[in-house]
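Data availability (excerpt). The following record was deposited with the supplementary files.
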Amino acid sequence: MEIPGVSWPRDLDEARSVQGSLSKGVVLRSLPGPVKLVAGIDAAFTERSTIAAVVVLDIERMEKVEETFSIMKTGFPYIPGYLTYQCLILYFICLGAEVYILWR
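Predicted structure:
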């Protein structure tokens, strides 16, 4: 994956190292209030492309609020347990989030 200024893991050993470091920073806490919107996120892959999609649902009205998708060149192979390296950036793009890479 090409991200300017970021050294993305190139293989399983590097991915395992980064994932292990990041997992130590996970903080679980209660939600600040009732949940009103939920998002379903999924990805699909071809040999050359990764496609991510997000659908946001208003759970009180059971209505779709928004849907979006993004496509980019696949830069990391599919490895069970390491899907993040294939599609996390696309998920953030779909969600409209600014992407901050916190390692390296």
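Summary of structural features: Residues 12-23 form the longest helix (12 residues).
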